[in-house]
## 1
Amino acid sequence: MDVFAEYQTKLRTPAQAVRVVKSGDWVDYTTNMCFPTLLDAALAARRDELKDVKIRGNLIFSPIQVAECDPSREHFFYNTWHCSAYERKLCDRGLCNFIPMIFRNVVPYYRHFLTVNVAMMCVPPMDKHGYFNLSCAAGVARGILEKADVVILEVNEHLPRIYGGFDESIHISEVDFVVEGEHTPLLQFPIARPTEEDVKIAEQIVPQISSGATLQLGIGGMPNVVGSLLAQSDLKDLGMHTELCGDAYYELFRSGKLTNAHCAIHRNKGMTGIVFGSQSLYDWVDENPGVVVAPLEYVNAPETIARIDNMISINSCIAVDLYGQICAESAGLRQISGTGGQLDYLTGAAMSRGGKAFICMTSSFIDKAGVRRSRILPHFGGDIVTDPRSQAYYIVTEYGAVNLAGRSTWERAEMLVSIAHPDFREKLIAAAEQQKIWRRSNR
């Protein structure tokens, strides 16, 4: 059959398409800009007809109607692999549950352990060959769609087409239903203006990066700000190998720093799995041969990362304790974000010849009551450990950078106190002494 004729046979309204969802089903929305807004609204409209429909999403930024319409969670039960700021608020309201994961394992989890009755996501319009590009969600989408009993695609005219290494598209013959409709322009996430602390943190990192290095910049404001400041450095011929392509890479490209000339496994091309940022970023990645997407089970695999010489990983965290345990996803038991690919890149960058893995944070923060709190803690008491102390390498604050690799507990305590905010150093020393991880000669 002609692909456009086949497209017409599968075209439905959103309301018609979601009729396939039954009580008790597992439904998947994939991730970020590919969240199917029209299908979500249509499914929410069926609330009173359905019971116990479980939905998975991932880094979704706009209102999720199936969660908002059902505060009892009797009809729809929403879950996320990684909290956006919006999903964090859903968690706070008891309308979202977190699914622990390491990003490289997400699709293998689906493949081996999970059920997907219906998968639905947004895609750019079909091309003349009958293929839909998986766009900003290509890092995970193909594996989820393959596991689904029913695949519904929602055409979003604003999504960029991003070229792929593999698994970046799906053919009309593999799709059950297609829906169309108008969409608002894509949400935008420009880089925040750097604070004085951000600049000082960047100044700790830049001297440890050489020209020709390949960068992974994790999710969150801090890595993006550090990346944008790298664009103002004297470095050149940098590369991109990352789970998330954000605006910092576009800034590096605009400054002439990002060439990917020395990346051994995809020379002259920057590789990523998911994309979100400003409209300028979406325009840059659209049909750009210099940017390719691939599944995160490949992009984030430590053995893949390790093949890239001078791999530099820059991520952020919420807190570190004196043992070197790193929390990047919770405040106590309150879920803030997720593990994502941080542990993937800590592992892979450390295996890379010349590679380095940096975890960045401000040394302190001001809480809602106006009280300054230390991000370096004596020990965790309920905080989720994202990275074990056995895989802690460079920890960076505005007061310095220390490498914990191979260091004993007393050495770690000494190093971390040295980069803590001065207001908290004496208290941390006292705690370290009580915990028997402090040498008196350190003073």
## 2
Amino acid sequence: MSPRRAEPPADAADWLPDFCSAPVFLSLLGLAAATLLIVQLAPSAAGQSTLDRVPLALLFVFAGASLVVGGLCALRRHLVAHSTPVAVTATFAVVLSGTAIGSWLIYWLDHALELGATIAAGQPWHFVLGNLFVAAIAWGVALRHFYVRGQWQRQVRAHARAQFDALQARIRPHFLFNSMNTIASLVRERPDDAERVVEDLSELFRVALRAGATTTLGDELTLVRRYVDIERLRLGDRLEYHEAIDDAPLALTMPALLLQPLVENAILHGIQKIEAGGRVDLEIRALGGRLTITIRNPVPPHHAAGLHRGSGTALENIRQRLRHHFGDAAELELERAAEYHLVRLHLPVP
């Protein structure tokens, strides 16, 4: 049995936070303030509390912590280019250097102005060494938190990616089987049309597979149109298809095979079950930083109550892929009425 190879340490870019962001900056200020309060709650050598010096000490701590975080912000681009051990060592060097310089300046300023915040500290080196000790412990706790959170986020992203790949793999065979059924229905009575469907299906799958996990809105619309052409050969004049596109950002990135299953549901569960047929409407409008895509189709009156029961899996599939790609910024709405069924997608536009 070959020995198991140890995994290399994670790069700092995998877990080191953006020190320039407001949430990280505020959390580090909060950590500095909490550390100060813990220290100040401890009784002094004389057995008395030093809480009366907390407001002034907080001012000094916030000023020093801001300088240290500013240094980390300026150096982050260099820190994330190295492995975790190098980045950790560098961040400790920045934090401890900033703490030492800031402590000396605070001690000098406090005594020059006779503010009284560092009276109990004794000699300057006592004050500086004490702050270095506390800063080292606090920064070690902060780095451990950042590392654990980064590893957890990596696992979440990996799990989400695996789910997305499974959903993507599930929807392609479903589309293929429905297309093959269309071909089978045409082979005997309309072989020429069946041959055309095979050619269109080949071209359609070339586009779909080229898109991979993601595609653009323009390519997705091309996919929908080819699919509608295939279904028109089967349904003839019973199927009408209409597009209304208003300044749509065709380069918008989106999950592949997002619109085609919705149009497929509209045809199979709506138009196909109406003897006279009907029209599928696809409307796309961009407004206020959001893209709204609406797909509407008529339904038979006696199927209105139980319409699209068989399409629940496809709709849930699309919801999950929207959530993976856009997060909470995307939304899928359903509207059922006695005469029509409507699906509306709301997507963010960068």
